């Protein structure tokens, strides 16, 4: 295994955007601090200096110190290579299961945990294409356009977190997924023509999955019950559910049956007003042909 990058340099901090530790994430800080301490103890027990170890794993000395000091999140390849160099018998590689979760912002981890448990996910999104449906480049363009702008590290962390949630499509048994999208965001070429085309192709791909119902709310619709904003409903195997809406309950997660019925009524009405799944896919195909 090469210890250098394609450009012949050891990987250093600037090569690794999006891997800083969020100081406000107590659990994340604890995980990375513990893993860093274990790496340092094993390195010292092996009699290796930081520079020597860095060369062996393919990273710069400064990065080694940052990871061991709990200041940077190690990549999976770093842990795997460290496991080999330090003969840790798989213990360092196994730390990746916890480490990979730390990279994602706390709020996104919590949302991802709920989505991973849900047997039904229903989502109406009015201003953007939902994160569960975004391609990497579309997500990067959307997040990168925020004002005030995020740092490059934050952009990469948020993109990675958004894509990690899409593992919901790989679950078995597959959850029932329902999406209602607005026509406007689908016509907006965020990121440029190629990124836009790739995003439309992704929508067609997902919309054809057996467990997905994807519908489009056309701009010419003269009756629209979703003007209050985004609606999300998650239902779980034990019969419980949680929902949130931009226009109701101040976007707070709600679980009371009487409040959930309001969101279910609104979502059901929006679905009835939208194009059918078949009409929606045909509409997206038409948009793709116009690009």
UniProtKB/TrEMBL annotation:
UniProt cross-references to Pfam families, sorted A to Z: DUF5753, HTH_31
Record-annotated membrane-spanning stretches: none
Boundaries of every HTH cro/C1-type domain copy: 38-93
Top-level taxon of origin: Bacteria
Entry-linked SMART domains: HTH_XRE
Entry protein name: Helix-turn-helix transcriptional regulator
